[in-house]
Amino acid sequence: MSEVNVCFASDDRYSKYMYTAMLSLLLNTKAFVHFFIFDGGIREENRKILAGLAGKYQCSVEIVEFPEKLRNMFPDTEKHLSAAIYYRLYAATFIPSAERLIYIDCDTLVVGDIEKLYNTDLKGMCIAAVPDGNAKKHIERLKLERYINSGVLLMDLKAFREQHIEDEFTAYIRDYSAKINAFPKLVRKYITDPERLAEFAALEARAESHEDGALKKIGNFISACDNKSGLGDAKVKELTEGLLEYSDGLDHLDFPDQDVINCVLKDRTLYLDKSWNVQTIGRHRSYIAGFDKPESEKNIIHYIVRKPWRYHCHSPYQGLWFSYFAKTPWKLQALYWYVIRLIKFFYYRRDVGADELWYRILGVDAIKCRTEKDADGHEHVVERRLFGIRL
């Protein structure tokens, strides 16, 4: 029997969605699958569920721990992302037994035979991937010729080791982090007045949130400090140059891991047929991006931006995702989704409270959902009820 190596990376929030993607792969692949999961904080309970796949299907499941030292190296990510997105960059080191590997995001369904992708001729390239659905924007932002989506990657780990590509990734990430941190350090070096520093901290926070005009105000702030404290031409020039690098860096890594891969491997990437990463948001957006081929030509469906388990997802393949999710240990939540769809079909009204969302039919609380935010600001569903019965 042939064998393939497949890698996922997830924290605990996404573990059940990763299980769904893994299950879809197993149900559509004949080869024996060696799963490697980069652990971004998966609870023991969910680890056991994931490992249980090995007893039901032709596969093995190995949880790969990622050293805390390396985790701390990565720049901060957006709230909806986790540091686990970077782990794929170091697969060559932490999966030493594999010479070739397929990396797949958790928000996917594998509906084709993954062995076909695994056996693709890389033609001397280090990775193979599909162009991003919004490539034009990223090409302009990063000044590249082409731009891939990193949600599905075929990786030549042997080439990674021979060419020391992980060192290139690390250097790129460190250069970026240093660039972002350089300007605030310069300001604190030359300006010591507590009130001025507090004013700068507020402007810095606004700039990092991309609020219009904040960077211009930082420039005015530098001028004001010069007038009040007499920084001198040399110091003002250094601060101004630091500001230019800082403002350029703010928009640089919009998609951290994906940008790093595109910039470092821009000349070492083979471009795959779109069927291996069909990026779908809604019917119209999928059509514009060119992901509107017949069903038979879809091998991996990638639910970008709007996830299929969210109510506002408009992907034409949301129902397909739930058909696989219904085969997981979380099948009751799939039933919950189907009931919501049924209620919406007839009549519903949605009311949003401080942390609650509920659906009513004929004045009765039919479906109720309560959420809470953790210390990192991530919102989690902590309670679901269907006609008063907790699911």
Protein described:
- With 391 residues, the chain is of the alpha/beta class.
- The protein folds into 3 domains: 3-119 and 273-303, Spore Coat Polysaccharide Biosynthesis Protein SpsA, Chain A (Alpha-Beta Complex); 173-250; 336-390, no CATH class.
- Helix content is 42%, strand content 21%.
- It has helices at residues 15-27, 44-51, 68-71, 91-94, 114-118, 135-142, 157-163, 165-190, 194-208, 214-229, 233-250, 256-264, 283-288, 318-325, 331-346, and strands at 3-10, 32-39, 59-64, 100-104, 108-110, 127-131, 148-156, 269-271, 278-280, 300-303, 349-352, 356-361, 364-373, 379-386, 389-390.
- The strands form 3 sheets. The protein has a 7-stranded mixed β-sheet with strand order 3-2-1-4-7-6-8, sandwiched between helices.
- Strand 1 (3-10), helix 1 and strand 2 (32-39) form a beta-alpha-beta unit.
- Helix 8 packs across helix 11 (233-250).
- It is globular and about 70 Å long.
- The two termini are 41 Å apart.
- Residues 77-81 and 347-355 have low confidence and may be disordered.
